[in-house]
Amino acid sequence: MSGLERDGAPGEVPVAAPVAVPGAVSGNLAVDVRGVSRVFAGRKGASVTALADVSLTVAPGEFVSLIGPSGCGKSTLLRLIADLDTPTAGEIRVFGKPARQARIDQDYGIAFQQAGLLPWRTVSGNIELPLELHGVGRTARRARAAELIELVGLSEFAGHYPDQLSGGMQQRVAIARSLAESPSLLLMDEPFGALDEMTRERMQNELVRICAETSAAVVFVTHSIPEAVFLSNRVVVLEPRPGRIRDVLRVGLGDTGGRGETLREDEAFFHAVSQVRELLHGEAPAGARGVEAR
Amino acid sequence: MRRSPLPARRFVVGTLGVVLLAVIWELYKLLGPAEGVVLGGVTVLPRTSDIAMPHLWVMAARALEPVTGAGAAVPLWRAVLDASLFTLGISAVGWFVGVTVGLALALLMQRFRLAEAAVLPWIILSQTVPLIALAPLVRRWGSQIQFGAFSWESWMSVALIASYLAFFPVSVGALRGLSSPDANHVDLMHCYSAGWWKTLWRLRLPASVGYLLPALRLAAASAVIGSVVAEVSIGLRGGIGRLIVEYAGAAGGDPGKPWAPIFGSVLLGLVAAGFVGLIGLGLRRFRRGEVAA
């Protein structure tokens, strides 16, 4: 736990992470975003540039957080990777395929801020939904759902309906659902944003454990600095109007398997948090200044 | 989820409501002025004479007596019941056709935005055409339809008019229901590369149940009303609508008689609404999270 190192010099826009990540050769990347812009056409010719020339790579098994103030295009970027939206310019490849093909091939699992469970399906039924849509047989579906319910620690609730669960439990079901097809990439858009702080930290611990178990790459959108630092291998800091990458911070807080509650008290953790905060506030990180009171 | 009141309690409250109505009727008859309440030449409250407002027990007793003085006449309640069943059958056909057409239109409008823009105004406009104007037209057109062994019967005209009223709430309600899923859910289905049909079956239809059931109930009531009114305007014999008109003529000498078919039509509406209630019971799973309706 030697702390942190930054990608690129201050002020310089980091195009892609230096190839320090194992397997980060083009074509072998989980996500490869190249020069992507997204412009939303507004009324009366006024258009909004949500993303301007963004480039980013995510290696297999890597946990990358996107953080930034609202309007910086972090969710837009995630939606572009998920092929829920198409870029105005640039190219996005997921496991070497165009984003659209990756979606059709179900190469990723996704979770949103709202759990988005279907209220008329039980916990188990909700997790089975993607499998059902893709023609997996009943017994295989049951078995997989049971496995995932176990993974997220909801075994007693398999037959419950979403309205009988707390927000945290619903979100766990949503995460289990996103894992249903054993994707090598997870896209998560503020999945813990609507949860209280206690539940949130517990969910983060669980996500770290689940990621270690499944070894999936994760692109994680958040606006919580500690959350981003705690979970990630790299934190991508975005700035708004137009949305672009300000800096990328490598957080070397050990592999995902070794992270636990103690990490939150760790000196390196606080250091990384203050560094991300300074990046967000648009200043050059100065380690000596320590945690800034907000 | 809020629990709805116990069935037993709901039953008691419902019965009390009916009893209250009966008490009000009898109290007004007892205490109200004989000539009614007239304000500026307009009768605001009815006269309390035995002809205008017969006692409830007169209505009940009359229902048990034969229809006419003729020897072979069946009891009045029996005649009313037969007529009600006849009308119920026609209403059911009208309801079924109306629901089918309404659903089809809603699906079309959900699928194609253009269809929504083109069809929805006409659907709303269709309900402004008075039924009375429509009935003779339908009968005239229907009488010209004949192919092979099939020929258009009068009851089909009545059913068609009933369906004309019934399709409206279904098409509007179903369209709202089909468009009701969150953007979140629609995105999710897109991520799963589920096509329109799969999205319809797994997401839109289940999500629409909460909107569809009130629409179906409204459609059932509309089908009954449509049938009763259309029977009168088309002149179809055998149904409750015809009976209401026929017995109304007897009011002068036999004040209890016209009330029997009126109660018959109330019963008809209740049965129709109850039938939709049963459908709702079967679809309970899809109404989770909904506040008791």
Descriptive account of the structure:
The complex is a heterodimer of chains A (294) and B (293). Chain A has 294 residues and is α/β, with parallel strands linked by helices. Chain A has a domain at 117-181. Chain A has eight helices and eleven strands. Chain A has helices at 74-81, 99-104, 123-133, 138-151, 167-178, 197-214, 225-231, 267-280; strands at residues 3-7, 31-41, 47-58, 63-67, 89-94, 97-98, 108-111, 185-189, 217-222, 234-239, 244-252. The longest helix of chain A has 18 residues, at 197-214. In chain A, 46% of the residues are buried. With 293 residues, chain B is mostly helical. Chain B is built from ten helices and four strands. In chain B, helix 3 runs antiparallel to helix 4 (113-126) and helix 3 (76-111) runs antiparallel to helix 8 (196-234). At the A-B interface, helix 3 of A face helix 7 and helix 8 of B.
**What fold name stands as the CATH topology of the largest domain in chain B?**
MetI-like fold
Share in β-strands of chain B: under 5%
Percent of residues of chain A in helical segments? 25-40%
- Binned strand content of chain A: 15-25%
Rg of chain B (CA only): 23 Å
Radius of gyration of chain A (CA) equals 19 Å
Q: What assembly state would you assign to the polypeptide chains in this entry?
A: heterodimer
Helix segment count of chain A? Answer: 8
Largest sheet of chain B: 2 strands, antiparallel
Order of helices and strands of chain A: EEEEHEEHEHHHEHEHEEH
Q: Estimate the mean pLDDT confidence of chain A.
A: 78
The structural class of chain A is: alpha/beta
> Structural class of chain B, please?
mainly alpha
Principal-axis shape of chain A: globular
The low-confidence parts of chain B are none
Sequence-ordered SSE layout with sheet pairings:
The complex is a heterodimer of chains A (294) and B (293).
Chain A: E1 3-7, E2 31-41, E3 47-58, E4 63-67, H1 74-81, E5 89-94, E6 97-98, H2 99-104, E7 108-111, H3 123-133, H4 138-151, H5 167-178, E8 185-189, H6 197-214, E9 217-222, H7 225-231, E10 234-239, E11 244-252, H8 267-280
Helix pairs in contact in A: 3-4, 3-5, 7-8
Chain B: H1 7-31, E1 37-39, E2 42-45, H2 56-64, H3 76-111, H4 113-126, H5 131-143, E3 146-147, E4 150-151, H6 154-178, H7 183-191, H8 196-234, H9 240-248, H10 259-282
